[in-house]
């Protein structure tokens, strides 16, 4: 069970919540506030968000290059003619919109580095994701609608935050602090109403964007009168964040407060605001730990093998070379046949090298036979299991859809693929459909006896 701390960074303190993740479910455990220095040795995954008073957004057009480094160079060259201040003073986040008139349209979000706390590298490397409140809200918006413009309006006692996005493409961000002279509940409701209206009218009249959906989060979700007035004003489809869908047992007031940091748990890396060097350094250190463990295990295993088989060293060396050649040939055949670019294939190949049993044809035969199933979807978990009774492959994942029609089409295609293997393998399909949440939980096992 994975422990998670997600929260907001306020100066040198992280104020957040502790969650436990069990499979695909997040469980609320407690509220937690601690000094940023104390996260170094914390046995949790840490997701941290900061609230920014300003985001500068520019739309630019560049040649349609795919390389990210080339994109960044072209974008910064364009920005140098637009932004008066030195770009080195900003964190530059680039979000692609698509090809328009043979040019790639991108929105560039500039974040002043002065707004970001000057944490040490070992602190920054400790975070799974280090991002902003606005990007956390955008992530939650994608869970509701990925392919349309979503206007996400968040409110709390200190500020409102409006984010217009389409998938991971950021179009507009507006932060509005609650004035000091506002105290009463009625005044706060009026401020929320006015803040929403000003932002909405600006987007409709100045940006010429057709909004598809409005999402509310924060304490405005509990203000029925305000929501009714806003619906009458905008006449657009409404949605609100169902916090218990993301985190079970979380109290409403804590959920309102921690909305953006909850979003970071499922946030993509492109919303991370750290320097790419920090992110790469963190990855390398994590990988090094696992490699050290693997090397230690292999060395220990090889030591045992050496003791047990010292008397037949020449024979063992011959068999090892023969098996390595056989594995290499099988892997090359598998790569050419399956044409499979998901990371799971590399995982299987690496995993295969650690097991003597997979030198037998069974591992590669079953992988080759079910290649259409493997290519159908990038499953979260794939496992190859071999016992005295036989061998099997299990696939597990959860897939979300935008409509019931999409869900039904996906399920029909999946069943059609599984039917192709029934003559040769035993197929156990325990997948379940959640019509209310438009999701399919895939749980498939394909097996064959010896």
Task: Give your account of this protein's structure.
The chain is α/β, with parallel strands linked by helices. It has two domains: 50-274, Nucleotidyltransferase, domain 5; 279-449, no CATH class. Helices cover 39% and strands 31% of the residues. The chain contains 14 helices and 19 strands. The chain has helices at residues 68-79, 121-124, 133-144, 185-205, 224-234, 243-246, 252-257, 259-264, 276-309, 313-338, 343-352, 361-369, 371-376, 404-419, and strands at residues 2-10, 13-22, 25-35, 45-50, 56-62, 90-100, 103-112, 127-132, 150-155, 159-166, 169-177, 213-218, 238-240, 247-248, 381-387, 390-400, 426-429, 432-434, 439-449. Helix 4 (185-205) packs parallel to helix 5 (224-234). The longest helix is centred in the middle third of the chain and has 34 residues, at 276-309. The radius of gyration is 26 Å and the shape is globular. The two termini are 34 Å apart.
């Amino acid at each position: 069970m994975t422990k998670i701390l997600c929260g907001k960074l306020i100066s040198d303190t992280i104020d957040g919540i502790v969650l436990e993740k069990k499979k695909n479910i997040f469980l609320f455990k407690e509220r937690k506030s601690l000094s940023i220095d104390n996260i170094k040795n914390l046995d949790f995954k840490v997701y941290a968000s900061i609230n920014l008073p300003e985001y500068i957004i520019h739309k630019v057009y560049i040649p349609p290059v795919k390389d990210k480094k080339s994109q960044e160079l072209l974008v910064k060259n364009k920005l140098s003619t637009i932004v008066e201040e030195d770009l080195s003073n900003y964190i530059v986040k680039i979000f692609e919109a698509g090809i328009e008139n043979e040019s790639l349209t991108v929105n560039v979000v500039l974040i002043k580095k002065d707004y970001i706390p000057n944490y040490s590298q070992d602190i920054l490397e400790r975070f799974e994701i280090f991002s902003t409140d606005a990007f956390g809200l955008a992530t939650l918006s994608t869970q509701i609608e990925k392919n349309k413009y979503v206007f996400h309006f968040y409110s709390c006692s200190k500020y409102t935050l409006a984010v217009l996005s389409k998938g991971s493409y950021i179009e507009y961000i507006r932060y509005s602090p609650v004035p000091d002279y506002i105290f009463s509940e009625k005044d706060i409701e009026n401020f929320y109403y006015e803040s929403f209206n000003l932002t909405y009218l600006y987007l409709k009249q100045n940006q010429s964007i057709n909004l598809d959906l409005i999402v509310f989060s924060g304490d405005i979700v509990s203000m029925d009168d305000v929501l009714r007035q806003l619906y009458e004003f905008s006449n657009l489809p409404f949605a609100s964040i169902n916090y218990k869908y993301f985190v079970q047992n979380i109290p409403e007031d804590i959920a309102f407060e921690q909305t953006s940091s909850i979003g970071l748990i499922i946030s993509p890396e492109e919303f991370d605001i750290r320097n790419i060097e920090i992110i790469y350094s963190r990855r390398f250190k994590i990988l090094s730990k696992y490699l050290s463990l693997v090397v230690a295990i292999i060395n220990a295993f090889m030591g045992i093998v050496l003791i047990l088989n010292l008397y037949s060293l020449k024979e063992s060396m011959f068999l090892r070379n023969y098996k390595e050649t056989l594995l290499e040939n099988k892997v090359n055949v598998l790569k050419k046949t399956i044409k499979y670019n998901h990371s799971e294939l590399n995982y299987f190949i690496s995993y295969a090298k650690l097991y003597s049993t997979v030198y037998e044809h069974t591992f590669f035969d079953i992988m080759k036979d079910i290649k259409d199933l493997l290519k159908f979807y990038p499953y979260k978990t794939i496992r190859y299991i071999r016992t005295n009774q036989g061998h099997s492959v299990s696939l597990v994942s959860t897939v979300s859809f935008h409509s019931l029609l999409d869900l039904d089409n996906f399920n029909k295609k999946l069943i059609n693929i599984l039917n192709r293997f029934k003559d040769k393998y035993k197929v156990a399909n325990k997948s379940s459909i959640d019509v209310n949440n438009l999701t399919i939980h895939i749980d498939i096992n394909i097996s064959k006896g010896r």
